[in-house]
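dumping this here so i dont lose it
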């Protein structure tokens, strides 16, 4: 895939969705951080259902830390891996209070030092809360990048680095959201919906409908 094809892909995705954003519901960088931690191996829908009540009752690190692991677990019991996530979120709240004045840090190093926060979660927070042009490679982006030929790679990090290199600068900030949404609703895992894909003619997937 050449540079003009890549630019055309993102021009079309932008035209279809000029202001993409996460489907996680949050009211602050802290709430986004918690929602992303909870979203590992869970759907955004299930996370939003749990955090609606949680964020109403415990909107800040101090209020959430006061719940304790058991108290937090009661709110997120419907989410997979909730005991581990409760432990990580409470530990993260305490670190935010002690080391960062209750604020979410704005550097990758400090974010990745928080329990339950890896590179992907840090990238989501840096991009969505702080406006940085990072790309968090989840299962959807990994699939779309490889399937289309946009940024093939064998690991999420390889795909991320290739996307950062291949995505034109003017599209880089929103690329993360466009690719996730495209993978979630169009370029789906079991059967990509090529017949209604707006970039099908630019895609290099050999198994696409009509190929």
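and the seq i came up w/
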């Amino acid at each position: 895939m050449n540079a003009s094809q890549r630019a055309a892909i993102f021009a079309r995705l932008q035209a279809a969705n000029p202001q993409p954003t996460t489907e996680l519901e949050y009211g602050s960088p802290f709430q986004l951080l918690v929602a992303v931690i909870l979203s590992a191996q869970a759907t955004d829908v299930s996370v939003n259902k749990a955090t609606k009540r949680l964020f109403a009752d415990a909107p800040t690190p101090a209020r959430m830390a006061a719940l304790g692991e058991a108290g937090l677990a009661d709110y997120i019991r419907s989410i997979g891996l909730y005991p581990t996530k409760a432990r990580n979120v409470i530990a993260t709240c305490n670190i935010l209070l002690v080391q960062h004045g209750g604020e979410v840090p704005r550097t990758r190093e400090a974010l990745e030092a928080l329990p339950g926060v890896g590179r992907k979660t840090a990238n989501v927070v840096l991009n969505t809360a702080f406006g940085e042009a990072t790309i968090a490679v989840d299962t959807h982006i990994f699939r779309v990048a490889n399937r289309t030929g946009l940024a093939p790679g064998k690991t999420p990090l390889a795909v991320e680095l290739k996307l950062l290199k291949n995505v034109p600068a003017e599209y880089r900030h929103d690329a993360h959201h466009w690719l996730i949404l495209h993978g979630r609703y169009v370029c789906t895992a079991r059967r990509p919906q090529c017949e209604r894909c707006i970039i099908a003619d630019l895609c290099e997937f050999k198994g696409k409908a009509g190929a």
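The two ends are 16 Å apart (CA to CA).
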